[in-house]
């Protein structure tokens, strides 16, 4: 069993009101020195069987068509660990 | 770890159980042993402790609540009364309406978003469990001081939670209240009300009858939500290696609830359900014991069959879990397949977990062993009943002697004007649209009136125009000064609000929020408030159909103001005859109905200008309220008035300001003979309303009032773009609007 | 004769009954369509109503977009069948790429419910022919993910081709780029908007105005005269 992580983030040019709200709150809470915050989504996929090229290609396709909306979001696929 | 079976319990009478940690008193625990003739198993103890808690058993309030039944007015409209999930009233044309208000106060303070969200979820499941389609929700809220930093945490979270859950369910939010007072700082009140509509023949009850019928648990899987109590039992007594704390906060899933609504209603429509119960407080313990005790037979439950979200849960935890969005149905064996099919259509998990037996015991099995064997009535209905001591507080006389009528009044017209502006801008009197704009009021397409109107109104039949109206009110300041009158004033205001919209008040639900019942002062407030409400309902002819009691609302020794929130439900034959609150027609005449006296005790003016609470609340005259209601309804039905607004907190000037701003028209007012401008504008005498009358209807309207003995005074005319009080001051609408509408966004946006 | 207008119900759809009522008020026949069913039951047009399908989990409209009924809707829309997406339905249409752009959380992060003034910019689509270009209408708006966004090129293209169908007036309620409230595809048969015309079709309920009825009378006339 292996875990594959898909991180989905709004594209850099898209306004992220939730991230901005977090950033604005930071100084109030005493956390200084953070110039920008962007909020994203993390999907942890438990994969049955080997994470080979074919499996990764399917996951890539899944991310592109479903997990992320590529009009506004980018994504990164990472293999986390082999158990 | 040994499983604590019934057999094991009988063999090991001396095993110590953590009954005290679970909230049972020693004599209560002894009572359980006596009932069972042995010590309870862990699972049985879990059930008794949670079902005999104040929240589930009403043990402190029961003796007083009986008055709602004893003093109930004769009323043909009542189809299902107190004791079921929610009361049901007949609204005509074959329709029945169920409605109820509940509290979710403590959870909303701990986690405002989820606490408020799951409050909406719970009340809506109560409505579905009666067989009704939910059609609207309302949310009466009481928060701490508007300026306090913690209020900035609690209120936005609560509002987002109510919106996040209710909007996603597709239920219009049509009313409610928002009141700020420092007494609620550590105990905000988050009450949630819901209305449902059904045909008479569709009323369903929570009972399990017919041996062989299947018990089906459906909805969300069961997880470790809200079972702090059960984990005491699980970890400290039986298994020290377990993580000892489960989260006490429950997380709501409105999407799951929406599916639950649709699939339950579809099963009802096909007549597949014999009995039904929602899973709320006390989860499966409550659902199984109530279903079984209200039915004719017993019940056998296989706990292993309950679908779990967390496979490490112990049987005690499964019984006590308060995971949201679950329901329990009793279904005849030959209808089970179809029931499961409907659940599958809606992607709702459904599992047969037991069946109705011909015995009279509730038996629960785990891994093939019997872990519960009880008479379900002893769990669900024979809990302890307390006659808590109560006494009029020693400070009550001094509070009432501190007369608000003696407070310094505005010395001149400029001060009067300034105080009016201050009043309409004060957090309690300011516009609440910052809150209500976060709630969907349009969904379902039947909303006739919604806040800030006097009552929320929903059309229930498109062809005939039949509709229902609901209003909720409760003035804790009045109730603090005199709980008996305070409760009646809450009832009177809510009744008046419904009538002002043109609907006939029919029935009452209440949410009684008080401090600790172990404090005789609080218990006296509670006893007085119930006596007042029951007497009032009898006099107005509106029975209490059900409700909720929330006690222990206090921080340390300091209790909240006694806060009975009263919901009145009304019916209107044709929503086309409804009366809105907006003054819209230039030239229409403004009439004040009722009598104005020097009554400032507990008033908004005394709070805003002087920070004062003392004296006596306004006099209550319920015969007058009834007459006022009849006049408002007749005038609406016969087209004699185009707008009406009840007078309550803030008095006449607040009502006129609201109606003018709503309609975008000004008003020229004249102080009537025999009154000074200050009393005219700020008095909070009960039994009053202001109406806008077309000139063509003036004679007919005043004749009707005269003939029926209702005092009626012409006070001005709808005109211009300012509120002008002749000889005193002029306030342009723009200035009034800025003052009224900027407050809440300024504080919370 | 009248027209058959399908109204799709996804799990979590909220405004399906309201939309069916609006279709009936306009004089057409409302045909309920179920998300698991590919069969469009020979309807002449389809409305994807508002709500929180699948709880708006993942992204608003993202899961519904892959339902069986949408396979047929996409196919038919490409062949010219009129499709209207309201609120969550608009979100579904952008997820399918039948309409360009996407919806973000409102810039103020709150759910907002209010009466909203719109200007009808394009009165030539299948769903707007009963309005006149430049007409101002007032209908309810209610959402939390209503901020329309697209890249500059797409926005310029929409403007140049007259495909901005509705624009917010009297204050942008959610930060939508160029005040866009709704758009149309090139052919004018697929229209999506965030505000709710189906809640403004009867004088007694909702806003008390009937400004939204034109959507449904437009499509009825088009279909009956076709």
Automatic annotation (TrEMBL), chain A:
Pathway: Purine metabolism; IMP biosynthesis via de novo pathway; 5-amino-1-(5-phospho-D-ribosyl)imidazole from N(2)-formyl-N(1)-(5-phospho-D-ribosyl)glycinamide: step 1/2. InterPro entries: PurS (IPR003850), PurS-like_sf (IPR036604). Keywords: ATP-binding, Cytoplasm, Ligase, Nucleotide-binding, Purine biosynthesis. Part of the phosphoribosylformylglycinamidine synthase complex involved in the purines biosynthetic pathway. Catalyzes the ATP-dependent conversion of formylglycinamide ribonucleotide (FGAR) and glutamine to yield formylglycinamidine ribonucleotide (FGAM) and glutamate. The FGAM synthase complex is composed of three subunits. PurQ produces an ammonia molecule by converting glutamine to glutamate. PurL transfers the ammonia molecule to FGAR to form FGAM in an ATP-dependent manner. Belongs to the PurS family. NCBIfam families: phosphoribosylformylglycinamidine synthase subunit PurS (TIGR00302), PRK05974.1 (NF004630). This is Phosphoribosylformylglycinamidine synthase subunit PurS. It comes from Streptomyces alfalfae.
From TrEMBL, chain B:
Residues 210-366, 585-721 form the PurM-like C-terminal domain. Its EC number is 6.3.5.3. Pathway: Purine metabolism; IMP biosynthesis via de novo pathway; 5-amino-1-(5-phospho-D-ribosyl)imidazole from N(2)-formyl-N(1)-(5-phospho-D-ribosyl)glycinamide: step 1/2. Residues 21-59 form the Phosphoribosylformylglycinamidine synthase linker domain. Mg(2+) 1 binds at residues 102, 548. One of its GO terms (cellular component) is cytoplasm. Gene3D superfamilies: PurM-like C-terminal domain, PurM-like, N-terminal domain. Mg(2+) 2 binds at residues 126, 278. One of its GO terms (molecular function) is ATP binding. Transmembrane segments: none annotated. It catalyses: N(2)-formyl-N(1)-(5-phospho-beta-D-ribosyl)glycinamide + L-glutamine + ATP + H2O = 2-formamido-N(1)-(5-O-phospho-beta-D-ribosyl)acetamidine + L-glutamate + ADP + phosphate + H(+). The keyword rRNA-binding does not apply. It is found in: Cytoplasm. Pfam families: AIRS, AIRS_C, FGAR-AT_linker. Keywords: ATP-binding, Cytoplasm, Ligase, Magnesium, Metal-binding, Nucleotide-binding, Purine biosynthesis. Monomer. Part of the FGAM synthase complex composed of 1 PurL, 1 PurQ and 2 PurS subunits. Belongs to the FGAMS family. This is Phosphoribosylformylglycinamidine synthase subunit PurL. The gene is purL.
Automatic annotation (TrEMBL), chain C:
The active site is at 87 (nucleophile), 196, 198. It catalyses: N(2)-formyl-N(1)-(5-phospho-beta-D-ribosyl)glycinamide + L-glutamine + ATP + H2O = 2-formamido-N(1)-(5-O-phospho-beta-D-ribosyl)acetamidine + L-glutamate + ADP + phosphate + H(+); L-glutamine + H2O = L-glutamate + NH4(+). InterPro entries: Class_I_gatase-like, PRibForGlyAmidine_synth_PurQ. Pathway: Purine metabolism; IMP biosynthesis via de novo pathway; 5-amino-1-(5-phospho-D-ribosyl)imidazole from N(2)-formyl-N(1)-(5-phospho-D-ribosyl)glycinamide: step 1/2. It is found in: Cytoplasm. GO terms for molecular function: ATP binding; glutaminase activity; phosphoribosylformylglycinamidine synthase activity. Its EC number is 6.3.5.3, 3.5.1.2. Keywords: ATP-binding, Cytoplasm, Glutamine amidotransferase, Hydrolase, Ligase, Nucleotide-binding, Purine biosynthesis. Transmembrane segments: none annotated. Pfam families: GATase_5 (PF13507). It comes from the Bacteria. Part of the phosphoribosylformylglycinamidine synthase complex involved in the purines biosynthetic pathway. Catalyzes the ATP-dependent conversion of formylglycinamide ribonucleotide (FGAR) and glutamine to yield formylglycinamidine ribonucleotide (FGAM) and glutamate. The FGAM synthase complex is composed of three subunits. PurQ produces an ammonia molecule by converting glutamine to glutamate. PurL transfers the ammonia molecule to FGAR to form FGAM in an ATP-dependent manner. This is Phosphoribosylformylglycinamidine synthase subunit PurQ. It comes from Streptomyces alfalfae.
């Amino acid at each position: 069993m292996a875990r594959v992580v898909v991180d989905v983030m709004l594209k850099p040019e898209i306004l992220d009101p939730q991230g901005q709200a977090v950033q604005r709150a930071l100084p109030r809470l005493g956390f200084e020195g953070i110039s920008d915050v962007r909020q994203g989504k993390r999907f942890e996929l438990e994969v049955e069987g080997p994470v080979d090229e074919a499996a990764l290609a399917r996951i890539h396709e899944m991310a592109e068509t479903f997990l992320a909306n590529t009009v506004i979001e980018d994504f990164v696929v990472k293999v986390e660990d082999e158990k | 770890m040994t499983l604590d079976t019934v057999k094991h319990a009988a063999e090991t009478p001396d095993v110590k159980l953590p009954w005290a940690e679970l909230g049972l008193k020693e004599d209560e625990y002894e009572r359980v042993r006596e009932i069972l003739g042995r010590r309870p198993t862990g699972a049985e103890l879990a059930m008794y402790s949670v079902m005999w808690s104040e929240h589930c058993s009403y043990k402190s309030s029961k003796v007083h609540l009986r008055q709602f039944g004893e003093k109930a007015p004769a009323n043909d409209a009542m189809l299902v009364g107190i004791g079921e999930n929610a009361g049901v009233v007949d609204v005509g044309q074959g329709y029945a309406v169920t409605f109820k208000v509940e509290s979710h106060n403590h959870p909303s303070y701990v986690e405002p978003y989820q606490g408020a969200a799951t409050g909406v979820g719970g009340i809506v499941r109560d409505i579905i469990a009666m067989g009704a389609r939910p059609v609207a929700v309302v949310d009466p809220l009481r928060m701490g001081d508007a300026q306090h930093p913690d209020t900035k945490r609690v209120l936005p979270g609560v509002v987002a939670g109510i919106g996040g859950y209710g909007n996603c369910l597709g239920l219009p939010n049509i009313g409610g209240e928002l009141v700020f007072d420092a007494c609620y700082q550590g105990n905000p009140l988050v009450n949630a009300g819901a209305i449902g509509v059904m045909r008479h023949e569709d009323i369903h009850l929570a009972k399990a009858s017919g041996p062989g019928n299947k018990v089906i648990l459906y909805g969300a899987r069961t997880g470790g939500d809200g079972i702090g109590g059960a984990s005491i039992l699980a970890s400290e007594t039986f298994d020290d290696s377990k993580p000892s704390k489960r989260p006490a906060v429950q997380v709501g899933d409105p999407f799951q609830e929406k599916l639950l609504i649709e699939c339950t209603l579809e099963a009802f429509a096909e007549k597949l359900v014999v009995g039904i119960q929602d899973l709320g407080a006390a989860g499966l313990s409550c659902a199984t014991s109530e279903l079984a005790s209200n039915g004719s037979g017993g019940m056998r439950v296989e706990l292993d069959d309950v679908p779990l979200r967390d496979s490490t849960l112990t049987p005690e935890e499964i019984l006590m879990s308060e995971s949201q969005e679950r329901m329990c149905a009793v279904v005849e064996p030959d209808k089970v397949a179809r029931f499961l099919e409907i659940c599958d259509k809606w992607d709702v998990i459904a599992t047969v977990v037991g069946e109705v037996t011909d015995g009279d015991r509730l038996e629960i099995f785990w891994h093939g062993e019997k872990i519960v064997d009880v008479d379900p009535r002893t769990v669900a209905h024979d809990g302890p009943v307390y006659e808590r001591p109560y006494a009029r507080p020693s400070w009550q006389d001094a509070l009432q002697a501190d007369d608000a009528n003696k407070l310094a009044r505005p010395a001149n017209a400029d001060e009067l004007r300034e105080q009016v502006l201050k009043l309409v801008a004060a957090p309690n009197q300011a516009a609440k649209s910052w809150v209500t704009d976060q709630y969907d009021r349009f969904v379902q397409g039947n909303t006739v009136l919604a806040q800030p109107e006097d009552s929320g109104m929903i059309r229930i039949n498109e062809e005939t125009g039949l509709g229902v109206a609901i209003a909720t009110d409760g003035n804790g300041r009045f109730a603090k000064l005199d709980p008996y009158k305070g409760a009646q004033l809450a009832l009177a205001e809510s009744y008046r609000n419904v009538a002002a919209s043109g609907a006939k008040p029919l029935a009452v639900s209440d949410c009684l929020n008080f401090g600790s019942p172990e404090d005789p002062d609080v218990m006296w407030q509670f006893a007085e408030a119930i006596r007042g409400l029951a007497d009032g309902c009898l006099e107005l002819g509106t029975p209490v159909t059900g409700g909720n009691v929330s006690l222990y609302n206090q921080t340390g020794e300091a209790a909240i103001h006694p806060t009975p929130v009263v919901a009145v439900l009304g019916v209107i034959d044709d929503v086309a005859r409804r009366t809105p609150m907006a003054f819209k027609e230039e030239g229409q005449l403004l009439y004040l109905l009722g009598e104005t006296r020097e009554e400032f005790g507990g008033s908004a003016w005394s709070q805003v200008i002087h920070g004062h609470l003392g004296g006596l609340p306004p006099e209550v005259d319920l015969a007058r309220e009834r007459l006022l209601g009849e006049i408002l309804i007749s005038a609406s039905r016969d087209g004699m008035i185009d707008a009406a607004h009840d007078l309550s907190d803030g008095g006449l000037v607040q009502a006129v300001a609201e109606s003018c701003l709503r309609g975008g028209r000004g008003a020229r007012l004249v102080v009537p003979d025999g009154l000074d401008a200050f009393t005219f504008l700020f008095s909070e005498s009960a039994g009053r309303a202001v109406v806008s009358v077309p000139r063509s209807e003036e004679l007919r309207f005043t004749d009707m009032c005269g003939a029926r003995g209702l005092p009626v005074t012409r006070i001005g005319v709808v005109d211009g773009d300012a509120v002008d009080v002749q000889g005193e001051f002029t306030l342009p609408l723009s200035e009034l609007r800025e003052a009224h509408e900027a407050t809440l966004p300024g504080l919370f946006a | 004769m009248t027209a058959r207008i399908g109204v799709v119900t996804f799990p979590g759809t909220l405004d399906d009954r309201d939309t069916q009522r609006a279709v009936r008020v306009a004089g057409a026949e409302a045909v309920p369509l179920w998300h698991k069913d590919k069969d469009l039951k020979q309807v002449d047009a389809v409305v994807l109503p508002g709500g929180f399908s699948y709880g708006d989990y993942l992204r608003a409209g993202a899961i519904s977009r892959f339902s069986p009924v949408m396979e047929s809707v996409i196919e038919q829309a490409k062949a010219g069948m009129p499709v209207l997406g309201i609120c969550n339905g608009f979100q579904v249409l952008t997820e399918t790429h039948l309409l360009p752009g996407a919806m973000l959380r409102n810039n103020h992060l709150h759910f907002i419910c209010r009466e909203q003034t719109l200007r009808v910019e394009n009165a030539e689509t299948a769903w707007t022919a009963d309005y006149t270009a430049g007409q101002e209408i007032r209908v309810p708006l209610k959402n939390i993910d209503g901020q329309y966004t697209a890249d500059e090129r797409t926005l310029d293209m929409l403007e140049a081709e007259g495909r901005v169908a509705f624009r917010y007036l009297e204050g942008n309620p959610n930060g939508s780029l160029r005040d866009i409230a709704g758009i149309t595809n090139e052919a004018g048969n697929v229209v999506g908007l965030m505000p709710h015309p189906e809640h403004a079709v009867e004088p007694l309920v909702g806003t008390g105005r009937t400004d939204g009825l034109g959507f449904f009378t437009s499509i009825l006339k088009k279909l009956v005269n076709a």
